[in-house]
Amino acid sequence: MRCDRLWTNARLATLAPEHPGIGEIEGGVIAAQDGRILFAGAAAQAPAFAPDETVDCEGRWITPGLIDPHTHLVFGGDRAQEFEMRLAGASYEEIARAGGGIVSTMRATRAADEDALVAAALPRLDALIAEGATTVEIKSGYGLSLEHEIKCLRAARRLATKRPARIVTTFLGAHALPPEWAGDSDGYIDEVCGRMLPAIAAEGLADAVDAFCEGIGFTPAQTRRVFEAAQAHGLPVKLHAEQLSNQHGTALAASFRALSADHLEHLDMDGVAAMARAGVVATLLPGAFYFVRETRLPPIDALRDAGVPIALATDCNPGTSPLTSLLLTMNMAATLFRLTVDECLAGVTREAARALGLAGETGTLEAGKACDLAIWDIERPAELVYRMGFNPLHARVWSGK
Ligand code: DI6
Ligand code: FE
Fold first, then answer.
1. DSSP of 343-369, one letter per residue?
2. What's the gap in Å between 289 CA and the centre of ligand 2?
């Protein structure tokens, strides 16, 4: 059988759902044609391929290309100074209420043009790619006006023309209240739903819609209005939920069949049950947990027992998670949240794809999926989770290239 490329002599972690654990296969091969996987499995079971090109993996491990399903990669400026304030004792919420926080990044983001935002985001994207990421979700949410949210989403889309990666965009207009709407958060939500979302949907700039449901963000009632507007435009929703307090946003998200609910440190058992019933992915963000020195853990055992799929993401953002490493994210998920190695690997591949509604497209090594691979110089998959600050990526393949 003809194929474009054949990777031979590999050990595979297929992450295919029907395989136990991470789907380890010794003596594996992967065949690709037109950017898609034709076959992934044991050489002994493979058809006889006639490849244009053969790559001998010399026993290396191949996992699906990594997926970061929650980032705020496009923003202007940085918040190193706020970090210093926090080190001196100020809390994240105090800084936010004093006009710092998200609004300070909003100012820097509004001041930057689209080219500058692309240029600022590229090194962050490159850091993810250097560790084998092939799909990255990027949210708006630092423009906070029609003009600037559109600019951010266009910048995010443009990143996909600059690098061989799949970029998935999310409109997060309801991230924070911009100063010009001070005292009128309902008015701002009118603007998000009535003007921003329709214009963004018309330009095809967003694949999903998100909101920050929080004491310092938006109420569940306001979040519901954002979700209704998203639904009216045929866009799936997801939510920053129960990060700093329990607002019961997760149950609301579940009632809208959200792709994912993210953070979840303050999630209660009713929220867990609602997620399980609606098939909502729990996207955990251990980088943010670490960086804000949170001590309350997401209810991992309850999520696991209820069969809620668990994804992991960097939450790369300048305020609470200036993190651009999925390898370190896995290490933190294991160390801080006690996820197993298998759960960590599934969290940045199969379950991350599911959190983006891309389970049919990427996230596992299975025939028919995009040929997104990460090839590693490791002896066992646990090394990807165990080491800190070390990158054993040997090669990365996106869409067969
Ligand atoms: N939750 C977070 O952790 C980030 N956004 C959000 O809704 C923080 C964003 C920032 O501080 O800039
Ligand atoms: Fe976030």
1. HHHHHTTHHHHHHTT-TTTSSS--TTS
2. 11
Ligand nearest to the CA of 70: 2
Q: What are the strands of the beta sheet with 239-241, ordered from one edge? A: 239-241, 260-263, 281-284, 310-312
Q: How far is the CA of 320 from the centre of ligand 2 (A)?
A: 8
Q: What secondary structure letter does DSSP report for 45?
A: G
Instruction: Please indicate whether residue 212, judged by its CB atom, sits closer than 6 Å to ligand 1.
Output: yes
pTM of the predicted model, to two decimals? 0.98
One pLDDT digit (tens) per residue for the chain, 401 residues = 999 999 999 999 999 999 889 999 999 999 999 999 999 999 999 999 999 999 999 999 999 999 999 999 999 999 998 999 999 999 877 887 777 889 999 999 999 999 999 999 999 999 999 999 999 999 999 999 999 999 999 999 999 999 999 999 999 999 999 999 999 999 999 999 999 999 999 999 999 999 999 998 999 999 999 999 999 999 999 999 999 999 999 999 999 999 999 999 999 999 999 999 999 999 999 999 999 999 999 999 999 999 999 999 999 999 999 999 999 999 999 999 999 999 999 999 999 999 999 999 999 999 999 999 999 999 999 999 999 999 999 999 999 99
Q: Is the CB of 364 under 6 A from ligand 1?
A: no
Select from 218, 317, 323 the residue to mutate for testing ligand 1; criterion: most ligand atoms less than 8 Å from CB.
317
